[in-house]
Design a protein that fits this description.
Blueprint lengths: L34 E12 L2 E13 L4 E5 L6 H7 L9 E10 L2 E2 L5 H7 L4 E4 L13 H11 L5 H14 L5 H4 L9 H14 L4 E5 L7 H18 L2 E6 L2 H7 L2 E6 L2 E7 H6 L4 H8 L18
Parallel strand pairs: 3-8, 3-9, 6-7, 7-8
Antiparallel strand pairs: 1-2, 1-4, 4-5, 9-10
Helix pairs in contact: 3-4, 3-6, 4-6, 6-7
The chain binds adenosine-5'-triphosphate.
The site of adenosine-5'-triphosphate has 14 residues, from β1, β2 and α1.
GO biological process, one term: peptide transport
InterPro entries: AAA+_ATPase, ABC_Ni/Peptide_Import, ABC_transporter-like_ATP-bd, ABC_transporter-like_CS, Oligopep_ABC_C, P-loop_NTPase
Protein name: ABC transporter ATP-binding protein
């Protein structure tokens, strides 16, 4: 499924060649990226045959930056992001090749128990539906306290205080009063805030957020994006954000990786991708953004932030 129409060097009309999206790491990050994904290949083996969902993707995330994985439905964004901590169910999935290094650790060679330590700890996932992180049976407080204690030596009382701090950090009104609530007693936006608090419980260096605002009302979307951006800037947590929404990318991304059919066809700084997209697929994605005027703004700006 790999993309083959990308010229290797230069173009006939003399315009800059598209960046070799799967080439060597960006030089400014080459020294010590927090996350380095190289030539990742993830397949699914089903009765219908083998799908190369991610077919040789490479990208990096530096400490404290937001990188967006963008692309149309089915381009491999979720599979790429979930392959990083091997959340992919194997079988039918198979991580068939490549390396994933996180702060010097080769994640793909870790044992299941070692990986469990990293997952929910130094790397936390936030999903489109908060139900992916929250158990409907238990109270918010119970779940948060468990998450805090799993990754620390805190006593129950200390963990409870930390849970209240985390709820406060994610902007939950009356945080102490929320501990006894069950998830269904909260709005969708509040549930996603709790899911982000759960992610913070393990004191992560990287949050992988897969369409975290897609299921929310549009006014709440910007608030949750603003929350993630505040966590990045104030706590120095890097964010790998999966989204199909280029309006979201314009709001929060430092750098962008554009996926198509399991292949990274373009990557670069957000300003470069928006102002000078070099791959035709990226240009088509941009052209489909309502209100996009090619000056770096969208209709979305000015909404509740
Ligand atoms: N469990 C699975 N079994 C078989 N194929 C799968 C499975 N999960 C994903 N795929 C396939 O992998 C490819 C990439 O899917 P993925 O969910 O990563 O796309 P995406 O870019 O995240 O799309 P969306 O925005 O719709 O979630 C698709 O062709 C999809 O059908």
């Amino acid at each position: 499924m790999g993309d083959t129409d990308e010229p290797g060097a230069g173009t006939p009309d003399g315009s800059p060649a598209p960046e070799d999206a799967n080439g060597p790491p960006d030089s400014e990050n080459a020294s010590e990226p927090l996350l380095s994904v190289e030539n990742l290949q993830t397949r699914f083996h089903t009765d219908a045959g083998t799908t190369r969902a991610v077919d040789g993707v490479s990208f990096e995330v530096a400490r404290g930056e937001t990188v967006c994985l963008v692309g149309e439905s089915g381009s491999g964004k979720t599979v790429a992001s979930e392959s990083i901590t091997r959340l992919i169910r194997e079988p039918p999935g198979e991580i068939a090749g490549g390396t994933v290094r996180f702060d010097g650790i080769d994640l793909l060679s870790l044992s299941t128990s070692e990986l469990r330590e990293v997952r929910g700890g130094r790397i936390a996932h936030v999903f489109q539906h908060p139900q992916g992180s929250l158990n409907p049976v238990y109270t918010v407080g119970w779940q948060l306290i468990e998450a805090v204690r799993l990754h620390s030596d805190l006593t129950k009382a200390e963990a409870r205080a930390r849970a209240v701090d985390l709820l406060d950090r994610v902007g939950m009104p009356n945080p102490a009063g929320r501990l006894d609530d069950h998830p269904h007693e909260l709005s969708g936006g509040q549930q996603q805030r709790v899911a982000i608090a759960m992610a913070l419980a393990g004191d992560p260096d990287l949050i992988i957020a897969d369409e975290p605002t897609t299921a929310l009302d549009v006014t709440i979307q910007s608030q949750v994006l603003g929350l993630l951006d505040g966590i990045r800037s104030e706590l120095g947590v890097a964010v790998l954000l999966v989204t199909h929404d280029l309006g979201v990318v314009a709001e929060v991304a430092d750098r962008v990786v554009v996926l198509r059919d399991g292949d990274a066809v373009e990557r670069g700084d957000v300003s470069k991708i928006f102002e000078r997209p070099s791959h035709p697929y990226t240009r088509r994605l941009l052209d489909s953004v309502p209100g996009w005027d090619r000056t770096g703004t969208t209709d979305r700006e000015g909404e509740d932030g």
